[in-house]
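The data are set out underneath:

___
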Amino acid sequence: MKQQQFRINKYRNMNRAKPLAMFAILSGCSLFALCFFFIVSGRVPGFESRPTEITFQITLEILTALMLIINGLRVLFSEGNGEGLLLVAIGMLLCALLNLAGYYAEKGKTGFLITLLLLLAVTIYYLIIAFHSRKE
């Protein structure tokens, strides 16, 4: 008996995971560019007061960005492979967004907070599209 492999898309004619993969690649590139900018410019927020915590946070964000980019590309350019790890990467993105939203809420920066909450809503929307769409 052949074991069925987990796939977001059980209908081969329409891959619902592709928009999620494209969003993951875009989010990963943006997150990586933001981290790179902060590190190169030397303006990492909160590094002077909490260096260990911020170092772990930056490391988490870089790993999240790499996971999003790599697994988004896997889903786009392979035939249905990589959805499981893409979900892990999206989970990492959700954790990073919630952590950053808490940081900016504590600082009282509503512009950043609203942006992060919108990104959180878009991420959840693409997850719903990938899992709960009907066959057309």
In short: The two ends are 30 Å apart (CA to CA). The helical segments are 17-41, 51-77, 83-107, 110-132. DSSP finds four helices and no strands in the chain. Residues 17-35+49-132 form one domain.
